Amino acid sequence: MNIKSIAEEAGVSVATVSRVLNHPDVVSPKTREGVLAVVDRMDYTPNLLARGLKLKKTDVIALLLPELRDFNYMEIAQGVEDVAHQKGYVMMLCTMEDDRTKEKEYIENLMTRQVDGMILAFSNLTKQDLLSVKKKQIATVFIGRNSELADENVVYVDYCAATVEVIRHMADIGHKTIGMIVGEKPRQENREKLLGFQKGLQEMGLDYHEALVIEAANNAEGGYLAVSQFLNRGQRPDAIFVTSDMMAIGAMEKIKQSELSIPKDIAIVGFDNLKISAFVEPKLTTVVNPAYCMGLVAARLLFNTMEEGEGQEAQVQEILIQSKLKVRKSCGYMGRLKEIHKKT
Amino acid sequence: MNIKSIAEEAGVSVATVSRVLNHPDVVSPKTREGVLAVVDRMDYTPNLLARGLKLKKTDVIALLLPELRDFNYMEIAQGVEDVAHQKGYVMMLCTMEDDRTKEKEYIENLMTRQVDGMILAFSNLTKQDLLSVKKKQIATVFIGRNSELADENVVYVDYCAATVEVIRHMADIGHKTIGMIVGEKPRQENREKLLGFQKGLQEMGLDYHEALVIEAANNAEGGYLAVSQFLNRGQRPDAIFVTSDMMAIGAMEKIKQSELSIPKDIAIVGFDNLKISAFVEPKLTTVVNPAYCMGLVAARLLFNTMEEGEGQEAQVQEILIQSKLKVRKSCGYMGRLKEIHKKT
DNA sequence: ATGAAAGCGCTAACAG
DNA sequence: CTGTTAGCGCTTTCAT
């Protein structure tokens, strides 16, 4: 079933069929109806591959994610998919599993498939790798900033600043010995959070002890085990910043099982603001991580770039998405307020 | 940058370049090296669109999901992506949002893009809709069974049977008044679970009371609110089967806040076996929902179908994936065991 | 308003 | 072993 058979059936040329489908207004209403009728009757759908080959445009964008099993990445994906769909595009989804080689292969592959644009989330590519991508002239937007990404379209959250804000808040409450449970350090975002942790402590005149930072798997179990480590050591922090809510929930579970009270004995602050974080006891103080928004904005930026690309040189943009501290019970702020009121 | 420029540069014909890329063994080592060198030097990558047009094969499969923000769907997606990548395919991902029209449009769209196969998870298509899909002869696998899917490739979990097993277990423990918190009823899986609930009660000689079934949003808040409803009513169940762990966790939170004990006052059983379910107190008894496995198996079945399709008529398959009851503390089984031991 | 024809980039007969 | 060539299905000038 191709355009030729439709043309024959409708008694017109292939050019006319093509026009009916793409520029219906330039063809006479009469023939248009005729062609449309045949198209309908024969259940014809044009071959987008052929069209893409001719037009050098596929209406496909690609999203590369470190993995799928993570709420933040899912949110990003949904954000991207929503705008892609709205624009009539379709999304290819690839996961790179923190494997730079796999990432490079995928990108190569996607470019040969002539995708119109790519969004690379938390990419591990080096400047060197990017060179070959640039050569292909494909519109690209990055999610998550890193030092290799100068002069690139980037949409990002400032995890360092967000963490500084957390530490400031914890110190304000009165916590002195602040520990940290940090997800896998190779991930850029975790390194930024660690940096923010150090900066925050310094800013608040608190000491940084390496022993109070524990690296853990980014899931409930990781947080649970990290707290076990803290408790087995001599020095127990009176507050812990945990780089993800999932880990934080695991951490809280261990604390509770140890007959310690949150936030009285150990206060906890997480990161992400998962829905579930409002349904643990005590409710988790956390940082809103606008992942869906990043996906949305990155996709919109991508489409802008693609459209500009048709005209003059596209302007590179860096877009900062604001995170936000969400104060609930687990950090001890409310308790602290009470104390202050008592004193006055 | 196309095959022609490579041919010219290497001083051979385009056919030879094509051969070097696709059947390297049939071309003399000497010319092969020469061509490869040029390919490398000029950073040439073939245009897969053109190849696909010629070969009528794109090495693309599509996965349609109800939405992305759900752990089960993400697991499915990861399963599919893993085998697609392994086979050298790339995955298009679309979400249909329980909107049959959007689903139909996407499928239409994907077919015009000449995807080699599609996996439709928890589709809402009718037999009628499927007719037009079949006409296009595209390999298709469904995840999640329903009555419209006779004579289709289907990979599924028997949610009804799984639920019967849950109810049986709850009844065995001694729970008499068993309630249910069920996710959105339009979703097939929830309807199956409801059916299983009724069958299970009947089988165990327990009464089914409509008042003990509450429909809720499939998230922690939904479970929380559902329990509130139960508590505000006269009749409080002594055990609740909740159709997802996320809701179950919300439900547990409300129970604990009401100063009731789990499982003593109200026992809880969830569904999904999320990682976090082992990190709530008490640990959640639940049903392992092998979503990743479903994705994996569905993708493998899809590739089988695609490969068979080249030969004779493909054999339609229905594959049942086993779920499994995971007994932990929240259902009261351990407590019950103790009682039994005391008696003896 | 319509048709003829070129060509997007590639692969696979077919011929040598 | 290699080159020539005919398409794959579509869009778009260029004529008419």
Can you describe this structure?
2 copies of one chain form a homodimer. Chain A is an alpha/beta fold. Chain A has 3 domains: 3-46, Orthogonal Bundle (434 Repressor (Amino-terminal Domain)), CATH 1.10.260; 56-157 and 292-313, 3-Layer(aba) Sandwich (Rossmann fold); 159-289 and 325-341, Response regulator (Rossmann fold). Helices cover 48% and strands 15% of the residues of chain A. The first copy, chain A, contains 13 helices and 12 strands. In chain A, strands 2-1-3-4-5-11 form a 6-stranded parallel β-sheet, with helices on both faces. A 4-stranded parallel β-sheet of chain A has the order 7-6-8-9, sandwiched between helices. In chain A, β3 (117-121), α7 and β4 form a beta-alpha-beta unit. The longest helix of chain A has 20 residues, at 291-310. The radius of gyration of chain A is 26 Å and the shape is elongated. The termini of chain A are far apart. The interface between A and B is large, with 53 and 53 residues. β2 (90-95) of chain A pairs antiparallel with β2 of chain B, so a sheet runs across the interface. The first copy, chain A, binds a DNA duplex (16 and 16 nucleotides) through residues 2-4, 12-19, 22, 26-28, 31, 46-56.
